[in-house]
Amino acid sequence: MRLEIDNAAVGYDGRVVLSGASLELADGQIGCLIGPSGAGKTTLLRAVAGFEPLAAGSIRADGEVLVGNGVHLAPEKRQMGMVFQDHALLPHLSVIDNVRFGLFRWPRAKAKSRAEAMLDLVGLADYARRPPHQLSGGQQQRVALARALAPEPRMVLLDEPFSSLDPDLRERLAIQVRAALKATGIGALMVTHSQAEAFAMADLVGVIGEGRLQQWTTAYDLYHRPANPFVAGFVGEGVLLPARVVDDMHVGTGFGVLTSDHRLLSAPGSQVQMLLRPDDVIHDDDAPMQARIVRRHFRGADFLYTLQVDDGEQVQALVPSHHDHAVGQDIGIRLDLEHVVVFEPEAPTGTA
């Protein structure tokens, strides 16, 4: 199913929290919405499901208007599968009976066969006769996905489906859920607070904040080509360094003159900001530039060092953990930039 959201506005408690949101998902694609709490992610998802009204705009499925222009198709007629945060499994039914719960209009043998196929798809065929309480949280969420897929929906909507699980399980389960969805060819739209889940799950990711959909693109482009400072600050780690426009393609920085990844509109001499990610800063003992470690965060495989350079600015560097340096120590650094992302005051969406 092709999903089109056009200039949508949603809200709650009598106020609009998100407006002008437009995005498209092609048939079979998986999209994720991320953003701060209260930004309107879940409200938009519920509007797609039909549980919330739109304040403006429209939502279409394969060209059919679901809501907008005076139309509001009832949720049960939209053929959307839902997966919730709390699994919503029925405790008095077995796993397989939970999966075929929505197939009551199907012939009994067909419903049983479909439920068995969906449990096999999510790797739980051997658990069909167990009650839900005998399954782990991750297994219960896979049962919930199997139940959502069983009626052959046009799309699956997932509302923070992994948030109640242990952190080390979430990304792994997101990969498994993605594989199950891709195996069926059914597209999905998911809301999550976790960037790791979104990046593991999605073909396209949207960042919602400050009342609008800031950017809708691939996870790679969100990280390496953020549309504006909000996205740059929300996705991943990094710092915005002051820079000066040299000409329409170059900026001067404390690291020298660098080539922008887009043509600059600001006049030479104008002050701009440059995004520097931790993986752009390389620890190199032979580098002429030295930086002092002011903070360090051990992550197992690596350290995230916060470093102060000679001009007083601070940058971050991701360094393998066998380079164990103390706070206050000077280390050599150099830049290894694939994309020089520059934000101009006159054009805050300069990299869009």
Automatic annotation (TrEMBL):
<dbReference type="InterPro" id="IPR013611">
    <property type="entry name" value="Transp-assoc_OB_typ2"/>
</dbReference>
<dbReference type="InterPro" id="IPR003439">
    <property type="entry name" value="ABC_transporter-like_ATP-bd"/>
</dbReference>
<feature type="domain" description="ABC transporter">
    <location>
        <begin position="3"/>
        <end position="235"/>
    </location>
</feature>
<keyword id="KW-0472">Membrane</keyword>
<keyword id="KW-0067">ATP-binding</keyword>
<keyword id="KW-0547">Nucleotide-binding</keyword>
<protein>
    <submittedName>
        <fullName>ABC transporter ATP-binding protein</fullName>
    </submittedName>
</protein>
<dbReference type="InterPro" id="IPR008995">
    <property type="entry name" value="Mo/tungstate-bd_C_term_dom"/>
</dbReference>
<dbReference type="Pfam" id="PF00005">
    <property type="entry name" value="ABC_tran"/>
</dbReference>
<dbReference type="GO" id="GO:0015408">
    <property type="term" value="F:ABC-type ferric iron transporter activity"/>
</dbReference>
<dbReference type="InterPro" id="IPR017871">
    <property type="entry name" value="ABC_transporter-like_CS"/>
</dbReference>
<dbReference type="GO" id="GO:0015697">
    <property type="term" value="P:quaternary ammonium group transport"/>
</dbReference>
<dbReference type="InterPro" id="IPR050093">
    <property type="entry name" value="ABC_SmlMolc_Importer"/>
</dbReference>
<keyword id="KW-1003">Cell membrane</keyword>
<dbReference type="InterPro" id="IPR027417">
    <property type="entry name" value="P-loop_NTPase"/>
</dbReference>
<dbReference type="Pfam" id="PF08402">
    <property type="entry name" value="TOBE_2"/>
</dbReference>
<dbReference type="GO" id="GO:0043190">
    <property type="term" value="C:ATP-binding cassette (ABC) transporter complex"/>
</dbReference>
<dbReference type="InterPro" id="IPR003593">
    <property type="entry name" value="AAA+_ATPase"/>
</dbReference>
<keyword id="KW-0410">Iron transport</keyword>
<keyword id="KW-0408">Iron</keyword>
<keyword id="KW-0406">Ion transport</keyword>
<dbReference type="InterPro" id="IPR015853">
    <property type="entry name" value="ABC_transpr_FbpC"/>
</dbReference>
<keyword id="KW-0813">Transport</keyword>
<dbReference type="GO" id="GO:0005524">
    <property type="term" value="F:ATP binding"/>
</dbReference>
<dbReference type="GO" id="GO:0016887">
    <property type="term" value="F:ATP hydrolysis activity"/>
</dbReference>
